[in-house]
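L-glutamate gamma-semialdehyde dehydrogenase, Pseudoxanthomonas gei. Tokens?
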Amino acid sequence: MSYKLTYATMFDPPAEVHARFDTALAEVMGQLGADHLLHVAGSDCSGEGWDERRSPIDLRRVLGRFAVADAALAERAMEAAHAAFPAWRSTPMPRRLELLRRVAALIEERVYLIAAALTLEVGKNRMEALGEVQETADFFRHYADDFERQHGFEHALPDDPLPDFRSHNRSVMRPYGAWVVIAPFNFPFALAGGPVAAALVTGNTVVFKSATDTPWSGRLLADCLREAGFPPGVFNYLNGSGDVIGQALADHPRTAGITFTGSFKVGMHLYRAMATGPYPRPCIAEMGGKNACIVTTNADLERAVTGIVRSAFGMGGQKCSALSRVYVEDAVADALIEKLLPKVRALRVGDPCLRDNWLGPVSTSNAVRNYERYCDMLAADGGHVLCGAQRLQHDGLEHGYFVAPTVAEAPAQHPLFAEEMFLPIVMLCRVGDRTEALRRANDSPLGLTAGCYGNDDDLAYFFEHIEAGVTYGNRPQGATTGAWPGYQPFGGWKGSGSTGKAIASFYYLAQYQREQSRTVVE
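Tokens:
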């Protein structure tokens, strides 16, 4: 099959994709309710207890029981990773590349089975789930290829200009040690697998903690790494709360570095913690977004509406890159709304296991509570709801976390223009011109993604002035979403990222190493 699945191509897949997903879903459904262990020092193990997880699609459906780690097991995992580091650091690069590529192959062999589990656990539709799993395989392969292409980041430098000696110089990048990866619930496979692959290929060992809401995805990733044949202790998998396990890992003296994906509040807490102590340690924090789209008077409104709907409501708005704010020039605002609302109302919301449903539930009970609170706020401070703003509780949806995709219009001063909601809610504001639109788009402490619809001059102005790390112009596949390894580097500015370096970029892998200058005199 020549079809290449990415977030930009997922909207019209071949029939074979759906058939294979349905077959895998039936197999996975037959395995629900099993117990799932942790993985430490090369062996699967239990924890201090078990957490029974249920599907956000239907809370009557038990996914399984998942072992929960305690601080003692976190200590054991860190010691195992630390002990395994010297041998792994010394493992020849071809062997490390071989193991990463083996993980990629295992993920691709299981892409439908893992995607079915993701749909059940997170509530994303089948194409979003398949995209996430394939993206993870691409991360492992991309980072292996990039590290090989960079020759392990080793560079010969000129000899010193000495008349009586030969003085040879080299720049060598060396791994840090035991690296901690903390993943979010919304992309629990890709945003775990990506940093795990980056840390491992550069010679670090890894302790990975899944999000408490999505331990199944973490376990499925651990299965692929275990079966690929990594030496004991090189990769370790834990499940547990951020307050207990996450904090224990951040505070551990063996922790050489952290990659965290999640909220600005938690990311900054970890960043500050890693900066204190006897010396600063690296913290790659990928944090939130309050992403804006600008629609000018020169925009193709049909294209803009398609991109807005896909970015605002894909995966229920539970993406750090999801579109949250639309700034539209007043001259075309009514026409944009007239085109937008029918497309939003036409979205099929329901069980995402079914092919016809594009929007599933939000992933957690906390998301439902936030949705109801935000919907009450939308009508205040001069705002008004244009569509949605209701919990869906018909035809069996009352057993899950289903909510209506929501569009609201409000003045620029509305407080929700400043709050990352992480829900299927998009807010629209009328502006006088593109200058005002850019100013309001940049009026945020976050700067992850942004989009613009307009003519060539509008786009040039947008790219020159927008304060965001991932930017799109006239993109119907998604106004602010859809980055893919090898095509679009993904990372934020300002409060959206701690390093200014993007995932899967030219500069990403080097963050997992530190430079050593070597001089030898003959």
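The longest strand covers residues 167-175.
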